[in-house]
Specification:
The complex is a heterodimer of chains A (323) and B (665). Chain A has helices at residues 6-12, 16-19, 42-61, 64-88, 206-211, 237-242, 272-289, 307-320; strands at 28-30, 36-40, 91-95, 101-102, 107-115, 121-127, 134-138, 143-150, 156-158, 161-167, 174-182, 186-189, 220-225, 248-252, 260-263, 293-297, 300-305. With 323 residues, chain A is α+β, with helices and mostly antiparallel strands. Chain A contains eight helices and 17 strands. Chain A folds into two domains: 6-188, no CATH class; 201-320, no CATH class. Chain B has 665 residues and is of the alpha+beta class. Chain B has a six-stranded antiparallel sheet with strand order 10-13-7-2-19-18, with no helix packed on it. In chain B, strands 9-3-17-20-21 form a five-stranded antiparallel sheet. Chain B has a three-stranded antiparallel sheet with strand order 1-5-4, with no helix packed on it. The two termini of chain B are 42 Å apart. The chains are: A alpha+beta (323), B alpha+beta (665). Chains A and B meet through helix 3, helix 4 and strand 6 of A and helix 5, helix 6, helix 7, helix 18 and helix 19 of B.
């Protein structure tokens, strides 16, 4: 069905004026009559031609059962047109909860489809600018989660733009569709930079220099992947024996005193986006390793910390960095 | 949509079964080689689906397709015409099944199958055929839906529910279209529908064995409903083709090379008895004869009378004919034209001397022409003539052999021998073919005349009375004209039995048969015969007299508008049945709120919802509170008695009806 996208047809029919008239709405949009378009599919047109031939044949031979069959099929297809329309009509489309999105990676903008009444909505397709349509069934008086795929998104606030909702239920003879433009943006974090670059010593706070010597002491704080130079005593042998292929090193509390500082200024040789990418990489790595860190970029300084909340705060700061 | 996706195996099998079911009735019409080939293709298809046989390669399939197309074209001499078209269509579908793989193939197969559905009605529009075709077509619609939206939980049965709903919603539209769609009389163009299939019925020539073959057919020739008093069975002679010319063996309507008969010389009929009025429904027999009771005096404008007093249509009958005619059973005809005299005394070359002598002897003994005819009838009665459906074969001079040697025969033998004798005696005579008798359907008010009642008799020209009917068969087997030939009971050796009351089983079967015949007669009359005339008559009854094409068009449009509106409304009805009536009412309440932007969240109970409304829309909370309270009590509360429940429900309904929230500013 790729040869005849509804949009093309609408433009070809000179309906371009109303073509891009997405149902506007803040957090959600109700699909209503005037924002729903409906046209026959390729098979619908073939079916129409077929009905016409059947009608002419019936007229020619004055064949009453021929008439009856032709009329029943005609009425069934018209009635199916109504069903196709009603399958889309009254769906409430809203944005879902944004996930963690990184620039340059494929992202799935979350959509929620909600139905208020007792009519279930099978076979609703959500079509974004790229990728295969996502098919979803919305139960009666219920909710379905789906998403729209985007690629090549850039760092910062992302708005999904116009997304098409489509259905051909029940017979595939008609296609009803509507455009929705969702206003709620999602924040896209910077592109994750390449791994391998070590955190420059300049970025390590003065206390850490001493502290790093006695990294064998008291409080256990978590695991990170083993690095050359880690003492064998730090290796978490139990985990190495039973779970992972990778060696893990135990990280101990005294490092808390030596939290790392991820600093914009430590990467003078990189451009703005590369710097942000590199910082993003470090945020992710350090979080995974359970090492505390702080972030210092022009205009923002985030105190050292660990865990997902710290990660989120830092990534948001990086994402919102003016470009 | 991705219609290049593969069809599931279950769907492939179901589709194949649907197409096979739809093709099955056509097998009988196909040449045997093609039918066998088709069955083999189906078996192959099923084998592929069940993974027992390999799928055919592209080239093999192409080869088979080309080969079978050439075969069909060769066999039928083209692709035009009903039989060739249907053969080709069935074949293409069988081949399409074999290469079916993707959803796209599924769509094409189903769409093509609808053609196959309608093609059945070119062969038959009888009730069983119609029911069968519609059932299989409904199954195809279920599959059409399942192509893209397979429904694992509900399966075929669930699909059926949807199809039934969709078709029912369209029924008003079907009714409007069927009744008001303009009907034309006569085809737009004429493709040969006859095909190769023969239709039984009387022919315009008669040779020994022709009519006796018909006598074994139980098919209905026509049905008659008398509007005046019903004549006795032995008086029911239904006039068909009149045969003038004989070569000693075969009788034909006209001598070879005769100019087409001109209707101008219609013999005048002088009525001498009470008129008999009747409605006759004639099955299409692909000839122009229009049967009427001997002798018609008034008939439909559509038909013309011949010089012999027969009715003919202007073209060969392809459709069932329904007409009213008036006949008189006692009549005289006036005037014998020169042509009639010439044709009526024609004798075959080399008439045997025995026949000539016999006729001449009667001639010389008798005082009048009528006495000669009586003498001939007496001869058949007195000599040992036998009435049988399987007479011994006759040689070069059938009349002579029959009269003097074998003396076993059927109406065609008797009438041709009698007519030949009359002519040999110098009296103008002719053979008339048609039907004799009729069985009354005890469950309805009409008579059935079957092919088995085909008959042939003679007419003799008498100076003072004109053409007079003589039935030599009746002289030999009087029960032939009192009772009808029982086609189901022709003995092994051809001895004829007549329809008499049999044992109880036979009677029960007869009753069933008559019941069914009554049903199909009304089906023919009320549904299949609906055409331009009945359409006009119906509109007249509705008070829509003198409606021209434009008027009919406007009426059709208005009807369509109403029916479409109805279909639209019906399609909005919700699918799910609600076990708890309060839920439906509360649902309406929630929809009203949703319209003004207050939406209940999926996992939010009614109380939580109410609290949220109170915060978001304090202006509404006063009217919302009693509704939610009542609903919670009804739905979650302790069961109360029915009377109380009803009262609460009514209150809830009233409250929700009155609830008209406004959009917040």
């Amino acid at each position: 069905m790729s040869s005849l996208a509804p949009g093309d047809l609408v433009r070809r029919l000179g309906l371009g004026r109303i073509h891009r008239a997405p149902a506007a709405g803040g957090s959600g949009i109700m699909l209503r009559g005037r924002s729903i378009y409906i046209l026959p599919t390729r098979y619908g047109m073939m079916f129409g031609v077929l009905l016409l031939i059947m009608l002419v044949g019936s007229i020619n031979y004055g064949n009453n059962m021929g008439f009856l069959l032709t009329f029943i099929l005609t009425s069934a297809s018209i009635s199916s047109l109504f069903h196709t329309f009603r399958n889309l009509h009254g769906i409430y489309v809203a944005s879902g909860r944004c996930g963690e999105f990184y620039a340059g990676e494929p992202m799935v903008y979350p959509l929620l489809l909600q139905v208020e009444n007792q009519r279930p909505r099978p076979g609703i397709e959500v079509i974004g600018p790229v990728g295969e349509p996502q098919q979803v069934n919305v139960p009666a008086s219920g909710l379905a989660e789906t998403g729209v795929l985007f690629t090549g998104v850039r760092r910062g606030w992302f708005k999904p733009g116009v997304v098409r909702l489509e259905t051909r239920y029940p017979f595939g003879l008609f296609r009803a569709w509507a455009y929705v433009e969702l206003q709620r943006p999602c924040l896209v974090y910077p592109m994750v930079g390449p791994s391998g670059r070590t955190i420059p010593p300049a970025a390590i706070g003065p206390l850490t220099m001493e502290g790093s010597k006695n990294s064998g002491s008291d409080d256990y704080r978590g695991l990170r992947s083993w690095q050359p130079g880690d003492s064998p005593r730090m290796i978490h042998w139990k985990a190495a024996a039973c779970e992972t292929k990778e060696l893990m090193s135990k990280v101990f509390g005294s490092q808390a005193a030596g939290d790392m500082w991820l600093d914009w200024d430590s990467l003078p040789e990189l451009g703005r986006e590369q710097r942000l990418s590199q910082l993003c990489r470090w945020v992710l790595d350090l979080t995974a390793q359970g090492i505390g860190f702080g972030l210092r970029i022009p205009g923002t300084e985030i105190d050292p910390g660990t865990g997902n909340e710290q990660k989120r705060r830092c990534l948001e700061a990086l994402a919102k960095f003016p470009s | 949509m991705n219609d290049q996706e593969n069809l599931s195996r279950a769907l492939q099998i179901k589709l194949s079964l649907g197409v096979i079911a739809l093709s099955l009735p056509h097998l009988g019409y196909l040449p045997i080689s093609l039918a066998v080939g088709m069955v083999l293709l189906w078996i192959w298809r099923m084998g592929v689906s069940l993974e027992r046989l390999p799928a055919p390669g592209r080239w093999l399939l192409l080869l088979v397709t080309l080969g079978s197309c050439i075969y069909v074209v060769g066999h039928y001499g083209g692709v035009l015409g009903r039989d060739a078209g249907v053969a080709l269509l069935t074949l293409m579908l069988a081949l399409k099944l074999l290469e079916m793989r993707t959803i796209r193939d599924g769509y094409l197969t189903i769409l093509l199958s609808f053609f196959l559905s309608i093609s059945h009605f070119l062969f038959s529009q009888e009730i069983p055929v119609v029911l069968y075709v519609f059932a299989v077509t409904a199954y195809l619609l279920i599959l059409l839906k399942a192509l893209e939206f397979p429904d694992p939980e509900s399966g075929t049965a669930g699909g059926l529910g949807l199809i039934v709903k969709i078709v029912l919603q369209g029924l008003p539209l079907v009714a409007v279209l069927f009744i008001l769609f303009p009907r034309l009389s006569g085809p737009l163009w004429n493709l040969d529908l006859d095909g190769s299939s023969a239709v039984s019925g009387l022919d315009d020539e008669m040779s020994p064995g022709r009519i006796s073959r018909l006598s074994q057919s139980d098919e209905v020739a026509f049905r008659v409903e008398f509007r005046s008093e019903v004549p006795a069975t032995e008086e029911l002679y239904w006039r068909g083709p009149v045969l003038w010319h004989t070569d000693g063996r075969t009788w034909r309507a006209e001598p070879p090379g005769a100019r087409p008969s001109n209707g101008g010389e219609t013999g005048k009929v002088i009525a001498e008895g009470e008129p008999v009025i009747y409605n006759l429904t004639l099955e299409p027999h692909r000839r122009t004869w229009i049967f009427a009771l001997d002798m018609p005096i008034q008939w439909d404008d559509r038909y013309q009378a011949t010089a012999e007093g027969n009715l003919v249509a202007r073209s060969k009958l392809r459709d069932r004919q329904r007409y009213t005619a008036t006949s008189v059973l006692r009549y005289r005809t006036a005037g014998l034209s020169g042509r009639d005299w010439e044709w009526g005394t024609q004798l075959p070359d080399g008439l045997s001397p025995r026949v000539k002598d016999l006729a001449q002897r009667w001639r010389s003994e008798a005082v009048s022409d009528i006495a000669v005819a009586e003498q001939a009838l007496a001869y058949f009665r007195q000599q040992p003539f036998v009435y049988t459906l399987q007479p011994p074969p006759l040689g070069a001079d059938p009349v002579d052999e029959f009269l003097f040697d074998t003396r076993q025969g059927f109406c065609e033998h008797y009438s041709s021998a009698f007519t030949t004798l009359m002519r040999a005696a110098g009296i103008p005579a002719r053979v008339v073919t048609g039907y004799q008798g009729g069985e009354r359907n005890p469950l309805a008010r009409y008579f059935i005349v079957r092919q088995a009642q085909a008959h042939a008799w003679a007419e003799v020209w008498l100076e003072d009375r004109g053409w007079v009917r003589f039935d030599p068969t009746a002289a030999v087997a009087p029960e032939r004209v009192r009772l009808s030939v029982d086609s189901a009971a022709v003995g092994e050796r051809g001895e004829v039995r007549f329809r008499v009351k049999g044992d109880w089983l036979r009677q029960a079967m007869d009753q069933l048969g008559y019941g069914w015949d009554a049903v199909s007669a009304s089906w023919n009359e009320w549904v299949l015969a609906y055409g331009p005339d009945s359409q006009r008559a119906l509109l007249r009854r509705l008070g829509l007299d003198r409606l021209d094409w434009a008027g009919l068009g406007i009426l059709l449009l208005v009807g369509l508008g109403v029916a479409l509106g109805l279909a639209w409304l019906l399609s909005g009805r919700r699918a799910t049945k609600e076990a708890y009536p309060e839920n439906r009412i509360f649902q309406r309440f929630r929809e009203k709120l949703a319209k003004v932007g207050v939406r209940s969240k999926p996992h939010e109970g009614p109380n939580a919802f109410q609290r949220r409304i109170a915060v978001a829309r304090p202006d509404l909370s006063k009217s919302v509170e009693p509704i939610v309270c009542l609903y919670v009590q009804l739905h979650y509360g302790r069961p109360i008695n029915d009377e109380e429940t009803r009262r609460h429900l009514r209150a809830l309904r009233v409250l929700v009806n009155r609830f008209k929230p406004k959009t917040s500013l």
